[in-house]
TrEMBL record:
This is VOC family protein. Residues 32-146 form the VOC domain. The lineage of its organism: Bacteria, Bacillati, Actinomycetota, Actinomycetes, Kitasatosporales. It comes from the Bacteria. Residues 156-178 are annotated as: Disordered. SUPFAM superfamilies: Glyoxalase/Bleomycin resistance protein/Dihydroxybiphenyl dioxygenase. CDD domains: VOC.
Amino acid sequence: MSDYYNAFETSPVPAPGPDAVPPELFRGIYGMPAFVTIPTSDLAASVEFWTRGLGFFELFAIPGSLVHLRRWAFQDVLLVPAETVPEQPPAMSLSFSCVLGQLDSLVEDCRALRPDSVDGPRDTPWNTRDVEVITPENARIVLTAAKPFVPDSQEARNLEAIGITPPDTGRPDGGGPA
């Protein structure tokens, strides 16, 4: 990983830490660099789960055709009507960034709406805490929050082993862990 630079200034995701605050919900219109389209057989139930459980809001809707949901900037989901949804969640997942302080309440909210929808939280070798949620459409969503960086931790050693070093090591590009 020799050709990279610290690009945190282009991301809405705050630097990890115990006092990390999520960015404001972003209600502006932009050209979406990426988004997911999720078919649902019950648009109203899906909107309720995504808004009350996962913390999204309805940016706009085209009645009977589409509901555009968003959390932070660049976290866009399009719900579209479908006759059926898959019976089982796919192996593939879609991840959305959170801050650590949000995870517990998101887990509670999702479990209140669908008691068996949440698996985790679990800590990863790359220094995040992840929660997997299965939505009413059987989409596999991962809510992921960066943990504070601890220089002498196993996670720091894991990151260093693949060439990601903390920003305070004197790198001229300011590169550091995600």
